TrEMBL record:
Domain of life: Bacteria
PANTHER family: FORMYLGLYCINE-GENERATING ENZYME, SULFATASE MODIFYING FACTOR 1, 2
Gene Ontology terms, MF aspect: formylglycine-generating oxidase activity
Residues in Sulfatase-modifying factor enzyme-like domain copies: 62-366
Natural source organism: Arcticibacter pallidicorallinus
Protein name according to UniProt: Formylglycine-generating enzyme required for sulfatase activity
Pfam families, sorted: FGE-sulfatase
Length: 369
């Protein structure tokens, strides 16, 4: 039986490489972050938790852990924090189940086999729909651009200005979840790697099939902190580049030289690094993760007095691209480092259009009690 979804996983102008200058590829552009982490300290311990993680559970769910209800302060807490991470505010949440790891290639393959689902990246863009989102008179692009494709990382041979992200991203025909680096690549032997090149629509469809849902932004950050109070990272406050590798991220000069201190150039198998206090893996680095919420850059101001089980804003707004509807992503990726993107901070917010797909973008799911 084919999977029938009420969602519409179609391409919009914001995903086409030809329109990079028009749309500024929000995920990449907003990832720029200057400054180095200046807070030091030891890796956090479970004794520093705000809530007791060792709650009784009435059942066990394969591949998931129970996050107890509790309260935390959401928002930025070091000098790398962006404007949209403020003001810090109190959030109360009911308990929920969350996947221990990012959804893997093997898990996504089961979904596709059972449903016949076709991802956004595997579909050819429809010019008639796309041109309605562009200024009148915008010329039709070359047919080589209007192809089933996704954005693939392309390292630069030398150091470059971090202002021009088009130097390290390529709109590549044939790139999709089965072919993460484009034609000629595959996922054989990578069944335990996080699935990538999935749009928000794709993640939603999988979650519905699995009887789960995508996490809210608040749930994701709460789970990421692993029970630690006001820590910068899922492991505590020790800078990401200090000590033993704690996550899959970019070491060296981005995007030209990766020293591979963590042993991985692209994504890593799930569970390659130590889990946080809740037993969750890769809540920092590896691949970005979709959340359910719409993105609004002023949303934290609206909930500054505190909120209970927030579901995000009712409308989306990003001043960098005011006409685009965007969703939140969290967690950073293997392309993040402190000179360019501090995405592995628990508070770091990111966003992109719902049809976006990248080589470093995946997701995990949650479920209610």
């Amino acid at each position: 039986m084919k999977y029938k979804s009420t969602l519409s996983p179609k391409r919009t102008a914001s995903q086409l490489g030809l329109f990079m200058l028009l749309t500024a590829l929000p995920l990449i552009n907003s990832c720029q972050q200057k400054g180095q982490a200046n807070e030091t300290g030891s890796v956090g311990t479970i004794e520093d938790t705000e809530v007791n993680a060792s709650v009784d559970k009435d059942e066990e769910r394969t591949g998931m852990v129970w996050i107890p209800s509790g309260e935390f302060e959401q928002g930025g807490n070091n000098d790398q924090a962006a404007e949209d991470e403020f003001p810090r505010h109190k959030v109360k949440l009911d308990g929920f189940w969350i996947d221990v790891t990012e959804v893997t290639n093997a898990q996504f393959a089961e979904f596709v086999k059972a449903t016949g689902y076709i991802t956004t990246a595997e579909k050819k863009p429809d010019w008639e729909e796309i041109k309605q989102q562009l200024p009148p008179g915008t010329p039709k692009p070359d047919e080589s651009v209007l192809v089933a494709a996704s954005l693939v990382f392309k390292p630069t041979p030398t150091e470059v200005s971090l202002d021009d992200y088009s130097q390290w991203w390529e709109w590549k025909e044939g790139a999709d979840w089965r072919h993460p680096e484009g034609p000629g690549s595959d996922i054989k032997g990578k069944e335990n790697y996080p699935v990538v090149h999935v749009s928000w629509y794709d993640a939603q469809a999988y979650a519905k099939w699995a009887g789960k849902r995508l996490p809210t932004e608040a749930e994701w950050e709460y789970a990421s902190r692993g029970g630690l109070k006001n820590s910068i990272y899922p492991w505590g406050n020790e800078p990401v580049s200090s000590g033993v590798p704690k996550a899959n991220f970019w070491q060296g000069k981005f995007p030209s030289k990766n020293t591979l201190k963590d042993s991985f150039y692209y994504s890593a198998p799930v569970k390659s690094f130590s889990p946080n206090g809740y037993g969750l893996y890769d809540m920092a680095g590896n691949v970005w993760e979709w959340c359910a919420d719409l993105y609004h850059h002023k949303y934290y101001e609206d909930v500054s007095s505190g909120t209970v089980n927030p579901k995000g804003p009712s409308t989306s707004f990003d001043p960098a691209e005011p006409d685009a509807s965007k969703r939140v992503m969290r967690g950073g990726s293997y392309l993040c480092n402190d000179s360019y993107c501090s995405g592995y901070r628990s508070a770091r917010r990111m966003k992109s259009t719902e049809d976006s797909s990248f080589q470093h973008l995946g997701f995990r799911c949650v479920s209610d009690k």
